[in-house]
Specification:
Spore Coat Polysaccharide Biosynthesis Protein SpsA, Chain A, globular
Length: about 170
């Protein structure tokens, strides 16, 4: 059993698994049909890398499509996928980066920041995430708050402080 905190929980899950590849997936995210085949093809072609799926929301609104496009740009151009896209990572790369740190928030951002950009690939299949947080928090306010949290994190604010703002 793990103490609270997603970073610590993810690290424990990785530690207790024995596969050559790890798939980290948020509880409110479902991978599109055919993901297993896409993952197998990726693993064969890139034996020591990281992949993420295309971010999608379970909401048909135009606001959801706009957010998906912004995330697609960030993921493909900047090569900065996050946990709500699912992270498929070789155990070798996971170990070389030091794995997930015991953080209450930003554990995915922090891990991806330690992976060389050339090792990060995007898979064409979607990771469909619940849009509840965006419907409740607003399709503009929620992403702006997320961006503020990332900025504070990158400026060196403690993870606990950033987590309070996030919630």
């Amino acid at each position: 059993m793990s103490k609270p905190g997603r970073g610590q929980q993810l690290a424990l899950g990785a530690e207790q698994s024995n596969g050559r590849w790890l798939l980290f997936l948020h509880a409110d995210t479902v991978l599109e049909a055919g993901w297993e085949s896409a993952a197998e093809d990726f693993i064969t072609a890139h034996p020591d890398a990281v992949a993420a799926f295309t971010f999608a929301l379970d909401d048909a609104s135009p606001a959801a499509r706009r957010l998906e496009k912004i995330v697609a740009w960030r993921s493909h151009i900047l090569r900065l996928p996050y946990g709500d896209q699912g992270l498929l990572i070789s155990r070798t790369t996971y170990a070389a980066t030091g794995g997930f740190r015991s953080l209450p928030i930003m554990e995915d951002v922090e891990l991806i920041g330690r992976v060389p950009r050339r090792k990060i690939h995007m898979l064409p299949l979607r990771a469909v995430t619940s849009a509840d947080r965006y419907r409740q928090g607003g399709y503009w306010r929620r992403p702006l708050r997320n961006l503020a949290c990332q900025l504070l994190w990158r400026l060196g604010f403690p993870a606990r402080t950033v987590a309070q703002l996030y919630r």
